[in-house]
Amino acid sequence: MIYDRYGLIGHPIGHSRSPQLFEAAYGGRYGYDLIEAEQFSLAWERFVEGPYRAINVTAPFKADAAAMADFPDEAVKRLGAANIVVRTDRGMAAHNSDFLGVKLLLERYASGMKSVSVIGFGGAGKAAAAAAEACGLETKVLRHNELENGAEADVIIFTLPKPAPGCELLRGKLLIEANYRNPSFGNGGLELPEGCLLVPGLQWLAAQAVTGYELMTGEKPDAESIEKVMSNG
Fold it and tell me: What percent of the chain shows pLDDT beyond 90?
């Protein structure tokens, strides 16, 4: 079999922008399918038995994919979650582009900064904390119920799905938000701390695509085209 297609497994995934982003990344040269199933075993079987070289993985299957992989990378081992699986001659390799995307954003925007407060302890929050630590930043993680007095750090990484009491008291030089569908800051309604730069969720998503797609295909994606798609909503 020729393994020349890519895809996404998860449920539900009908809303996903992954096909559009992948098409932009490679000028439509590769096929990309939504492989939707309510059960992980069914989605995984379609991947393994199909013509897929690699897949993205989204909720609720990231932990399952990490457990099934033959060769999880260090971030996957630490986080217990994978959102990229690549077929290799030796077996299935797993990666986490939440970790890779945040690391890219920190390297791009947080030069000279020393401290990070990650807001939220779900999958995105854990990946963000691991990325911040990998960048050598002093890292603290706060859950939604630990924000009564706000938080202050050079970098705030906000991963909650919606605002929580105390969010208006966050203080930092840089705020990176995970949520791109219903953001809390900027157009989402909450004001940024004075002098704070916002990196919105769409840039987080684009950073995941840029770092993740190269692992999937072995080819650098067209980052400008990805970011253009993101900017067009």
Answer: 82
